[in-house]
Amino acid sequence: MGAIKKIVVAAGVTLLSMVMLAALAGCDSEEVKSAKAGFNDEVTRIQASYDELLTEISAAQELVMTEEIPLDDSLKPALENAISNAKTVKFEKPAMPSDADEINAATEELRGESYDEDIQVLRDAETALSNSIEQRKLVMAPSEAFVLERLRDVEGVGEIVALTEETDVNGKLGKKGTYYAKINFMSPLVDQSQVYGSSVAEKGTEGGGSVEVFETEADAQKRDDYLAVFDGSVLASGSHKVLGTLLVRTSNELTASQQKQLEANMIEALIRL
């Protein structure tokens, strides 16, 4: 009977020892706990960054599907390309090492990872497209007052006036298929003594430049095509560029570089958000 008790006690001690060893094996040291916490924090941060990227991809896809037209038609393909590139980015949760030093080393590698740059590329492309859509709205059949206000503070633009049916020397103002508003201006860059006329209206585009405002882009383009026929000839009337339903023009009395700069200044003012 005593022998049986000894065997039972011994078995109980052995079982208890096994349970204690198993429990001890499942307990991490403070060093390992700290290492694991740091590792998990980095994984959580990267996962959040990746989730933000996925959200931005969805927003970009929604924008690129819009039927609204940008002023710069290259921006929608640019956003589509940014979306395609972003979709190639994948995140897989890394496995955690068991040793504290290895965990810490893996954590250090994770610290440099994020999807912030990918997100910013998308956001920049979205902003550019959104802005271009809004800019186009500004130059689609705007009011005469809008054009006047935008041109007043443009560098290279001097005295400015909106033509009337009486002062439009071309006799086109308000007629079907042509401009419903025309704003002429004189420029300090032009020697006015060399330009015929005594007023801004009489000097016309030659005195500095003008903006012609049409109902449709087709009408503006038709007018631009007409002026292009005389480019490079003695009848050339200066530079001309379609901007929405506007025709932005600068004097032939300006040098090529002056025309380019003045045109850029005018366009910048007209599409400023």
Structural notes for this entry:
There is one protein chain. With 273 residues, the chain is α+β, with helices and mostly antiparallel strands. The protein has two domains: 2-135, no CATH class; 144-270, no CATH class. Helix content is 54%, strand content 9%. It is built from nine helices and five strands; from the N terminus they run H-H-H-H-H-H-E-E-H-E-H-E-E-H. The chain has helices at 2-26, 30-64, 75-87, 100-111, 116-138, 144-151, 200-203, 217-228, 256-270, and strands spanning 160-162, 181-186, 208-213, 239-243, 246-250. A five-stranded antiparallel β-sheet has the order 1-2-3-5-4, with helices on both faces. A hairpin with a 2-residue loop joins strand 4 (239-243) and strand 5. The radius of gyration is 36 Å and the shape is elongated. The N and C termini lie far apart (99 Å).
Keywords:
273 residues, alpha+beta, 2 domains, 9 helices, elongated
Mean pLDDT: 91
Q: What is the helix content?
A: 40-55%
Across the major sheet, the strand order is 1-2-3-5-4
Largest pleated sheet: 5 strands, antiparallel
- What number of structural domains do the residues give? 2
**What would you call the structural class?**
alpha+beta
Number of helices: 9
Along the chain, the helix and strand elements come as: HHHHHHEEHEHEEH
| Strand segment count | 5
The residue ranges in which pLDDT falls below 50 over 5 or more consecutive positions are: 4-13, 15-25
Quote the beta fraction.
5-15%
